[in-house]
Specification:
Length: about 775
């Protein structure tokens, strides 16, 4: 919708000191970083006594520092010598553990099993973007110098050389594949993998073929000792490791580009992989794992120790990664840009491991080769022409801008990021897409004017605006994802949901209207079917946004969804200040600062939002629930009727689109069930709740002002009517709070679709 009045009319049926931060000039002697104080064997020296003696002569607040140490460094520093935060410090227990390490120790099969399982925990924790120094490098077998060891030979230490080291080496070779993807696109599970200056090796002298042979020989050896404790469990691990390593080789982007069947072969290997965490985890071996391994890497900054993933959860994570790798094979088989868009939206929802997400991006664009066996420019052309019948003149003029290809591929890269970064990058990219839309509009005007000299090229009723329509559609999808992504990340407090979904309602309404207009520039049955499929998802989400807006608005007015500062124990004067119009306006501007700078869709101003909220406040609060149920029913109907489109178009595309419909449908049904049970409970028929939103706001203002005056011992002379109003407001507050605590304790959780909330009420 164009503005807030239209939004309201659409719902009319509702009845240190400064010197410490100075940095020496470049090239000066003072600016040179000193060498770390280390012993001849590379370990850090404990200077605690020296520092204590120096500190004893300092006055309170004084600081001894190197010239290069700035205020920025101080703010970013780690609490060195604190065992809870510094991996370089050895406690007495740590020192005892370290002293137990012996690479020549004669291992039993049960001991090898325990080491292998702990190494698997380290590996899967590392897959979640932990540092090597927190995970794999803590295993002394993983970092040991294996030169000269009889690995793979029946030596005097047979279990170590025939079983453990082959598994350790195969783990390192597999991690080498993963690391190459980690470092290719910087797609991590958290913010970054902190490596310091360490260059990972991952047994570079061993190839995948070498590791496979070692694992095969390890299996033969274990079969010979099958009846011994731990042998069967180790055989399962060896078999799974072989399948995993082969799958990684087959699913590399370079291999799949050379041979399209490699992806299917890789999935076949994964399906043969079976890992189960054994009941008997083997016999622990002292000294094998050194959680304070940081002290051996003096060039790296001290980092905080990290808890490893537990055993059963570790297996689940490995199985999840194997399942997510099916997305890679699906991407190889993608048949249209529409299919590609659905694929990456699914990737964004599932949020697979960093390795899988990076591999997906490598598969999408690798050495100027992209999916669909086309160049990046051809892919963008196909994307436009699948939605609108743009003439060559419009495309040629628009493609004169070289940024288009990069921005288009970045649209997919954004969805492949981890959820926090994806949302942050999406907001940054919106401005670029907004600028592209302006350039595309001019290209459309020039092309239409050249083809139809006698017509008004700037008139939207005559000019289909082919390319700019497609750009606007892509921009709206990015904006919708950024807005709703905050739900998954718990960025929005419950009391903010009315504002967020009120705003989202306008965005989805604008998107639905734009899709209707795009039919004008999309002659042909295939394009019409694509627009209809997209329209189903957009219109269903519009109704879901309306329902979520109404439900959360009702609960906010009933004090169920409270702001952090709004509780009985808060200072009433502070609450009044934080709920003032000026404070709300400032929070609104901050929340939508990125969107307000866009040329389109029309930004819903704070005054427009207030007008819409006032319109809702004219209704009794329980009535809003009925209107919300109607909106959810409409969404269910839209998604339920979507089966009419499943017989048209490519089967793979329709299946991907149907998956998106099913996720939304699950959220709709869950909320319908919750709201129906809330209606049946009868709690909303309590007389205290049979008030309008406007009356609830008046009650809130009345008791807050009275509480503030009482707390300040500033009791003005009040009339009899004022005293009655205050008493009535406080009684309403107490009654509503009791209901909210005992019978109306509504919670907002994530459902089948992580970007949409599901309301949970007692008994639902």
């Amino acid at each position: 919708m164009a503005d807030s009045e239209q939004l309201s009319s659409g719902l009319s049926g509702l009845s240190l000191d400064a010197n410490a931060a100075e940095v020496p000039e470049a090239g000066s002697a003072e600016g040179q970083l000193p060498e770390p104080i280390v012993t001849s064997d590379g370990e850090w020296i404990d200077i605690t006594t020296l520092v204590d003696r120096a500190a004893s002569e300092l006055a309170s607040g004084a600081l001894i520092k190197q010239t290069h140490f700035t205020l920025f460094d101080a703010m970013m520093s780690v609490e060195v010598m604190d065992p809870r935060l510094d991996m370089g410090i050895l406690t007495a227990d740590d020192a005892l553990e370290v002293s137990q390490w012996d690479i020549d120790r004669q291992l039993t099969l049960r001991e090898a099993l325990w080491v292998t399982l702990q190494l698997l925990r380290c590996e899967m924790t590392w897959h979640g973007s932990a540092s090597l120094l927190q995970t794999l490098y803590t295993c002394n077998y993983f970092t040991a110098n294996v030169d000269g060891l009889p690995i793979g030979q029946d030596s005097s230490n047979a279990v170590r050389d025939m079983v453990l080291f082959p598994i350790v080496i195969a783990t390192g070779v597999g991690c080498r594949y993963v690391w190459s993807e980690f470092s290719r696109y910087n797609l991590f599970g958290e913010e970054d993998v902190q490596m310091g200056t360490i260059e990972p090796q991952f047994f570079a002298d061993f190839s995948q073929h070498d590791a496979d042979i070692l694992l095969y020989e390890a299996r033969m050896y274990l079969e010979f000792r099958m009846n011994e404790p731990g042998a069967r469990e180790l055989i399962e691990i060896v078999d799974s490791r072989r399948h995993w390593l082969r799958a990684l080789g087959l699913l590399s982007a370079e291999r799949m580009i050379e041979d399209a069947s490699a992806a299917a072969d890789g999935l076949a290997e994964l399906r043969q992989m079976h890992v189960a965490w054994p009941d008997d985890e083997g016999t622990p071996v002292r000294g094998v794992f050194d959680p304070k391994c940081m002290r051996r890497y003096a060039a790296a900054a001290p980092i905080k120790p990290r808890e490893l993933i537990e055993g059963p959860a570790c297996v689940q994570e490995l199985e999840r990664m194997a399942k997510d790798l099916e997305l890679v094979e699906s991407l190889v088989r993608v048949e249209s840009v529409e299919h590609l868009v659905y694929m990456f939206q699914k990737i964004h929802i599932r949020a697979p491991s960093p390795f899988v997400r990076s591999l997906l991006m490598t598969t999408l664009a690798n050495n100027e080769h992209v999916v669909l066996a086309e160049s990046p420019e051809a892919l963008v052309r196909r994307a436009v022409l699948e939605m609108v019948a743009a003439p060559p003149r419009a495309l040629a003029r628009w493609f004169a801008n070289g940024d288009i290809i990069r921005v288009f591929l970045d649209w997919f890269r954004t969805l492949a990021q981890n959820p926090p970064r994806a949302r942050r990058v999406a907001y940054k990219c919106l401005g670029t897409w907004d600028a592209l839309q302006g350039e595309a509009e001019q290209a459309d005007i020039d092309a239409f004017g050249a083809e139809h000299p006698g017509r008004d090229a700037a008139d939207p009723a005559q000019n289909p605006f082919w390319v700019s329509s497609w750009v606007y559609h892509m921009k709206l999808m990015l904006l919708e994802g950024a807005l709703l992504g905050g739900v998954r990340l718990h960025v929005y407090a419950a009391y903010e949901l009315p504002i967020i979904f009120g705003y989202a309602t306008q965005v989805f309404e604008a998107h639905a209207a734009h899709l209707d207009r795009m039919h004008m520039g999309a002659p042909g049955a295939a394009r019409t079917q694509r627009l209809q499929r997209v329209g189903v998802l957009v219109r269903a989400q519009r109704e879901m946004a309306v329902a979520t807006w109404l439900i959360s608005h009702m609960f906010e007015r009933l004090l169920v969804f409270r702001a952090p500062w709004h509780s009985k124990h808060s200072d009433a004067a502070t609450v009044l200040r934080l709920e003032s119009t000026s404070a709300q306006r400032a929070r609104y501007a901050l929340r939508f600062r990125h969107v307000s700078m866009l040329g389109s869709p029309t930004h819903l101003s704070f005054d427009g939002w207030c007008a819409s909220a006032e319109h809702l406040d004219e209704c009794l609060l329980p009535e809003l629930l009925g209107h919300a149920q109607n909106a959810l029913s409409a969404a269910r109907t839209i998604l339920g009727d979507a089966k009419d489109h499943r017989d048209s178009g490519n089967a793979s595309v329709v299946d991907a689109w149907a998956d998106a419909c099913r996720l939304l449908y699950a959220v709709v049904v869950a909320n319908l069930v919750a709201m129906a049970r809330l209606q049946q409970s009868g709690v909303l028929r309590a007389k205290e709740l049979m008030v309008s939103g406007a009356a609830a706001l008046e009650y809130r203002q009345c008791f807050l002002q009275a509480d503030a005056d009482d707390a300040a011992n500033d009791r003005p002379v009040r009339s009899k009517k004022q005293r009655k109003d205050i008493e009535r407001a406080r009684k309403w507050r107490d009654a509503v709070e009791a209901l909210a605590r005992d019978k109306l304790n509504v919670t907002c959780v994530q459902g089948a679709h992580p970007d949409w909330p599901v309301f949970s009420v007692p008994g639902a």
